[in-house]
Each structure stands twice: as structure tokens, then as C-alpha cells.
Amino acid sequence: MEIGFDLISDLNLSPNESFNWENKATSLYCIVAGNISSDLRTIFQTLAHLSRFYQGIFYTTGPLEYVGSTDFATRSEEIIKLCKKIPNVALLYHHVVIIDGVAILGANGWSCEGFDFDQEDVGHARVEDISYLNKSVLKLQKHLDVKKIFVVTNGVPKKELYFGEQPRSVDNQKLHLDYCLGNDTEMKVSYWAYGSYNKIVDTTIHDVNYINNSYFKRKPYWAKRINVTI
């Protein structure tokens, strides 16, 4: 059996900026790997628009969603409430979705290149996400209904995926998001979709397929279809 997911990320939309996904869907499901907008109304409108074309949307936030907020936890709660208003949108915030044997696990990841946040706040948030991914991957090893794990982060999961570039934000990262793979004893993590990097990526490292399909005002821009075989 094969399940298709359309991947998009880093729309970086300003309030009232137009976004049209008419006739661009290629799968039943869509993964949105963060950085839609800093404006809550724009986030809602964009997800509601996408929900017209997909049976299910799986969304994780990026740093952009927290710009202008004085408290990360409060903004997260606002986004949770917003997503609950759209029936077929699942926010991957401490929430795993399982579809036909595929567990979709998500976190922000906090790759903050180009963002001006308090470094201590970002550090705490990043460690929290790494801990969540680590515990979730470990727990899913024993889940009999889970054959494969599909991880979604806005943050770049490992330094090799910068392909020799050295963004300033990487200097302060003592742990990378792929730390959780140490708990993947059953080799269930097969796909990892991410954002925040301004180049298209589709590469396999140690049997994990890493895919980035960031927008960054790239035209034309199409979804990247990911086929997961069970």
C-alpha cells in the first residue's frame, strides 16, 4: 500500500498577501512544515484554504509563527485553538497522528537563522522539542500498529543537511534534532520532512529520506509529493 503526502513549507506570508493553491494538490494529504506567517489570521486563512483541497493537513509551526509574541506557550495555545476550528487540520504539537501504519510525528525544531529571538528562550524551546521527539520515537518502537515513522520539523534535522554551509544558528546547537534516531531501534523512521532551509532537498542518509520543499517566494512553486510505501 502507498500513501501520498504533499509537502510545502516556509510560505512566509504577510497579512493580506494572496496565496492560491487551486489545482496544485497531488495527494490526499498535505504536510505543512512551518513558517506560514507571524499573523494568526493569515495562518488560519491559509490552512482553511488548503483544507479545501486535502482530506487531511498535518502542520507544525516554525519560528515565524512566534514573531511578535512575548510568550511562546501563549502563542502555541492560540495556534492550537485556531487549528481546532478547521476540521481536517491536525497541529503536530505534542500530538502524533497514525494513518494506515504511518505515525506522523512533528515539532518546530527552532532553526532560527534570520530571526531575532532571545537565545535563552529559543534554547529552552529547542531542547524541549528534542526531548519530545526522543521520547516519542522511543514510545513508537513498541506500537504494534506503527510500521513507519514520518518525522516533520521546521528545523533542519542534522548539520549534514546544510551541505557545507554553516549558518550562524548552528554554532549554538549542542544537540541536533536527529538525536532521536538513537532510539529508533526498530528502524521505523523512514522519512523526515523539514523546512527553514532555502534549497530544495531530497536525499537519503542512513536509510532515512530527508525532504525539504521550502517556498521562500520561489516561482513557480509546486508541492513535493512524498510516496510512503507500507
Strand order of the largest sheet: 5-6-7-8-10-9
Give the DSSP E fraction (strand runs of 2 or more residues).
15-25%
Which CATH class?
A: Alpha Beta
Low-pLDDT residue spans: none
Name the CATH architecture. Answer: 4-Layer Sandwich
Give a structural overview.
The strands form 2 sheets. The chain has a 6-stranded mixed sheet with strand order 5-6-7-8-10-9, with helices on one face. The model has no long low-confidence stretch (mean pLDDT 94). The protein is built from 3 helices and 11 strands. Helix 1 (40-50) packs parallel to helix 2. It has a single domain, classed as Metallo-dependent phosphatases (Purple Acid Phosphatase, chain A, domain 2, 4-Layer Sandwich), CATH 3.60.21.10. It has 230 residues and is α/β, with parallel strands linked by helices. The longest helix has 22 residues, at 119-140.
Brief account:
By secondary structure, this protein is of the alpha/beta class.
Notable traits:
20% helix; globular; Purple Acid Phosphatase, chain A, domain 2; alpha/beta; six-stranded mixed sheet; 230 residues
Helix and strand arrangement:
Layout: E1 2-8, E2 29-33, H1 40-50, E3 56-60, H2 72-84, E4 89-91, E5 97-99, E6 102-107, H3 119-140, E7 148-153, E8 189-194, E9 201-205, E10 208-212, E11 224-229
Parallel strand pairs: 1-2, 2-3, 3-4, 6-7, 7-8, 8-10
Antiparallel strand pairs: 1-11, 5-6, 9-10
